[in-house]
Amino acid sequence: MAALGWLTPRRRSATARSVLAGEASAEAARKSVPEEEPAFPVLGDEKAAAFFDLDNTVMQGASLFHFGRGLYKRKFFETRDLARFAWQQAWFRLAGSEDPEHMQEARDSALSIVKGHRVAELQSIGEEIYDEYMAERIWPGTRALAQAHLDAGQKVWLVTAAPVEIAQVIARRLGLTGALGTVAESIDGVYTGKLVGEPLHGPAKAEAVRALAAAEGLDLSRCAAYSDSHNDIPMLSLVGHPYAINPDTKLRKHARQLDWRLRDYRTGRKAAKVGIPAAAGVGAVAGGTAAAIALHKRRR
């Protein structure tokens, strides 16, 4: 049995060093257990709200492009206009950035298309186009985030450069509080073909959120904002809870540097690399690219 003596624990009092070792080990074990994130959004916080970008955050693709498809179907403009619009969208998707010249051209095209039409007419058509092209493109993950804020008793707003009439239709259909969007001038309910101010893009979004928060009595440090684009960093930087959703490369880098939370609901390696929603399909990306190539060939 003596040979097995090494298996028998030795009885000896703990030394100061062994006590220190034991305490250090226990502390390390405690720290290794991940702390639960505090509940968010906070239930019943009336000073908090959530602000969601629309394109590629709430919905796959560009809402204005889908709206344009619906207007084209209703003979609002000709094939060459659709091809030009598709080229602009394809550039945005493939380049991963907005070209100022393309944005100006797209804006002017859209305004010329609706000029002389009644606001009520576009709102009614917007309801139809939502069902035809947009409803199936809502990201379920982002929709769930918005619903969590609603369930907590908070208001949820879309904030987008898309026309406010389109944004309001989408917000209403999703059960959200409302929408901030680009305002096109109208007189006696008829579009004039001009904008009120400028498109709600980049810094303008931040100013809109700031103004709405002041009017609603919100504490921005308790609010959340969600976007896919580095162009919305001014808006995201306003709130205490910024989220990068399906982020482009620049926003992903910025979010990681500042330890912002990230969510990516896209699928496929290509989507992760270049920021193109894999489920966007032929209508939004492939169709736009094909039209762009065809237009390029005609120009040559």
How does this model look, in words?
50% of the residues lie in helices and 13% in strands. It has 12 helices and 8 strands. It has helices at 16-32, 63-73, 79-95, 100-114, 119-134, 140-151, 164-173, 203-216, 233-236, 249-258, 269-274, 281-299; strands at 49-52, 155-163, 178-182, 184-187, 190-195, 224-227, 241-245, 261-263. The chain has a 6-stranded parallel sheet, sandwiched between helices. The model is unreliable at 268-300 (pLDDT under 50).
List the helices and strands and how they pair.
Blueprint lengths: L15 H17 L16 E4 L10 H11 L5 H17 L4 H15 L4 H16 L5 H12 L3 E9 H10 L4 E5 L1 E4 L2 E6 L7 H14 L7 E4 L5 H4 L4 E5 L3 H10 L2 E3 L5 H6 L6 H19 L1
Quick overview of this protein structure:
The chain has twelve helices and eight strands. The chain is α/β, with parallel strands linked by helices and 300 residues long.
Order of helices and strands: HEHHHHHEHEEEHEHEHEHH
* Span of the ends, CA to CA: 96 Å
Helix content: 40-55%
Largest sheet geometry: 6 strands, parallel
Weakly predicted, low-confidence segments: 268-300
Strand order of the largest sheet: 3-2-1-6-7-8
**Number of helices, counting only DSSP H or I runs of 4 residues or more:** 12
Give the averaged pLDDT, no decimals.
Answer: 78
Strand portion: 5-15%
Subunit organisation of the chains: single chain
| Structural class computed from helices and strand pairing | alpha/beta
For this entry, give a set of tags.
300 residues; alpha/beta; six-stranded parallel beta sheet; two-stranded antiparallel ribbon; 50% helix
